[in-house]
Amino acid sequence: MLIRTQLRLAALIPALVSLLIGGVLWVADSEADKARQVAEIAARVRVANFELNILTQEYLLFNGARVEGQLRIRLRSMGDLLAQLGHDGQNPEEKELVETLRRSHQELGGFYNLLFGSSSSSQGQIAGALLVKAQNIRAKSEQFVDIQQVQVVQLQRRAVVVVASSLCVMAGLSVIFLVLLTRKLIRGIGLLEEGVRRIAVGDHEHQIPLDTSSELGLLAQSFNDMSRLLRDSYASIETLLAGSRKLNADLELQRVALEERNADLRQEMEMRRRQEDLVRESNAQLTRQKAELEATLNRIKRLEGLLSICMQCKKIRTENNAWLELEKYIGDNSDATFSHGLCPECLDMEMKKLD
User: Fold this and answer.
1) pLDDT, tens only, 291-319
2) What is the b/e burial string over 76-91, where b = at least 16 CB atoms within 10 angstroms of the residue's CB?
3) Under-50 pLDDT residues of the chain
4) Last residue in a domain, options 193, 215, 244
């Protein structure tokens, strides 16, 4: 049952008990009013009986038609009052008293008829019987009034007992209900507190066992759902972290591989640069050698072929028809240089000339 429903029931108990007390008081007051009304009618019967006694004495003294008329009016008025005494719910004693009063009234009416039609000599005896019957009616009416007053007192006492009992029952039920509700609330709050503490320390498997028919149960269900979501979230985070760690390891391996590859590429590039330098140096050297070879070849080509030389002075004619000394021509068209000296034969000839 929901806590708000239980609280409403707890608030409804005093209202129901108040309604019960109000109903009991209303019924008791109604019954007491009815008893007081009946007691008042009985008192009026007693007054009417007293007035009949006064009028009977007056009739015996003066014996007039006016007094006879008043006696008949009072007798009829008493009959009307006795007719109002009977009602439903009377106990047997009350019914018996009402019947006795009505019979006594009828007998009293018969005595008055005898009195009105009798002679003066017999009126004394009839008057004595009337007085005895009037005393009987007075006693019965007083007894009836006492019974009604006792009933009023009993009704009031019963009402007080019912009110006190209802208040005691209401207080007891309220205390019991509040104690049970307090125990339920304390137990539910204690379980929630324990669940929060265990969740705070990382126990995401903990579930709060509560009845879902109350707000605390619904709160516990929401708490359990939250705990399950936290557990799933942490599991997802652990999975993501594991994947991230694996990915980082793979990336680290790839980074190491890339660094090794970069080192290899740098070495390869360095080797290629050196090879290119060597190639460039080789090309430059080859270009120089080619140029030298080409120059040498050109000089060789100029030295090759048919040379025109003077038979006398040994000068050589160039392509421009210029005559150059043999040493100069060979020096211009080759890398050869000349040093002058005398061969042995020429030396002997020169020596002979000197001699």
Assistant:
1) 776 766 566 555 555 667 787 787 878 77
2) eebbebbeebeeeebe
3) none
4) 193
